[in-house]
Structure formats: C-alpha cells, structure tokens
Amino acid sequence: MTTRTAIARTRRPLPRDLRGRGGSGKTAFMKPPRTLPDFHHENALFDQGVLRVAGVDEVGRGPLAGPVTAAAVILDPDCIPEGINDSKRLGRGRRESVIALLRQCARISVAHATVAEIDEINILQASHLAMRRAVQGLSERPDHVLVDGNRVPVGLNLPATPLVKGDARSLSIAAASIAAKIARDEIMRDLAQQFPGYGWETNAGYPTAAHRRALQDLGVTPHHRRSFAPVRNILCRGQN
User: Fold this and answer.
1) CATH architecture of 40-239
2) Which residue among 37, 105, 129, 130 is buried most deeply as judged by most CB within 10 Å?
3) For the segment 112-159, what is each residue's pLDDT rounded down to a tens digit?
4) What's the whole-model pTM score?
C-alpha cells in the first residue's frame, strides 16, 4: 500500500444557461446536477500527515429482515478504480465491476450485526456495531476514519470524522457503500433460497408491498426483525 499521492477529482460544472425553454421568458430554476464523490477529504487528511484513511458505511437499516452490514475500505491513492460512486446510484452489474477492481488494490473489511443484535440494542446501535467490526477487521489499522452519517460510532477508538451523505462526497465512503451493498445482497439472495416467497432476492428484505403481503400470508421467519413494527404487529395478532 503506498502512502499518499494527491488526487484531484473535478466536479461536474453547473449548466451555464438556466433559462426556461419556450417563449415565456421566465427563468427555470433548475436543480444543480449531482456531483461525484471525490478524494478531497482524504487529501486534506494526508496533508495533515495522516497515512491511512478508511471510509466506512453501512447498508440495511430499513429492511424488515436480515442483518445490517457495514464495510470499511482503505483506498490506495495510486490505484483508485474508475466508476466508484454511492452504491444507490449504481446498478448491480456496475457495482460488481467496481468491487472486482477494488479487491485488487484496496483494503476491504465487511462485518455484520445480526437480527438478534438489532432486536436487542436497536437498529442505530447495531449499525454502529457493524461499523466498528468492519474497521476492526481491516488488515491495516487506519489512522483516521471517515464515517457516513452525522455520528461517529461509540467505541471506535480512532480519530474519525462523520460526513453527512458521505457516500456521495468521499470516494472512500462510496467504495465502502459498494462493498457493504454487495455483501448484504448476497446474504439476502442466499436466504431467499431457504425462505422462498418473500422476494428477498429482489427486495433485500425491504418492506415492499410484496414483502408485506408475504408476511401476512406466510408468517414471520427467524430472519425477520421482531422489533420492527410491521413484524411485531403480526406477532402480536398471532398471540391473540
């Protein structure tokens, strides 16, 4: 792993002409185009003498079933693959192409918090638990961690900076979002084979209409989060 090389990522320029089309002469107030994550935050830390920066992100806070998954990634400044972006903006094929490149030249650690842990300590704390485990699982200890969100997980015990919407701002966090998304989707596809009918192979456990109907028709599985209201309500009705 090399130390630091300044990498500048340019952002897409705003459109010069924001005037509306047609003959009304009115100005159309357009939203600026989405920007791509860049290496600005990492480079700022390198300039302060930091050698290894990890980005950490989680996926799976909203589903009714399955674990919450986090990934931590240390990018090599000399080997950053093209195409890294917030995983929500990438299709499955593109995510898999990017992760294949990341596995060649980045440090990646993936960790989970189980359904039982989610029900015991709540989803926010379980998300932070998965994040801590992911950082601790890295083969090299980072000197600083960029965390997606507005809080640093308690007990991380490393210098860290929270970044709101960090997966759209930092390449390291965006890379972590891809790794976490791929790992969790694979788990849910495997579980879908064991528990068919809930659509986990496509909805990843999120509360889609089809998933909710399956809960009503097929009942609650061991992989459903009993602390989540739609699942808890079904269990309560079954006890009456």
Assistant:
1) 2-Layer Sandwich (3.30)
2) 130
3) 999 999 999 999 999 999 999 999 999 999 999 999 999 999 999 999
4) 0.84
- Beta-strand pair 53-59/68-74: antiparallel
**Ramachandran quadrant class, 149 (left: phi over 0; alpha: psi -120 to 50; beta: rest):** left
Distances (CA, A) of 129 to 27, 55, 132, 161, 228: 49, 15, 5, 17, 18
What type of residue is 5? T
**CA–CA separation, 163 and 171 (whole Å):** 12
Place of tokens 């009705």: 237
For residues 173 and 163, the answer to whether their CB atoms sit within 8 Å is: yes
Q: What is the pLDDT of residues 63-96, one digit of tens each?
A: 999 999 999 999 999 999 999 999 999 999 999 9
Q: Is 78 annotated as a binding residue?
A: no
Task: Say how many CA atoms lie within 13 Å of 235 toward its Cβ.
Answer: 12
Residue type (1 letter), 57: D
Flag whether 148 is marked binding: yes
Longest dimension (CA), the chain: 66
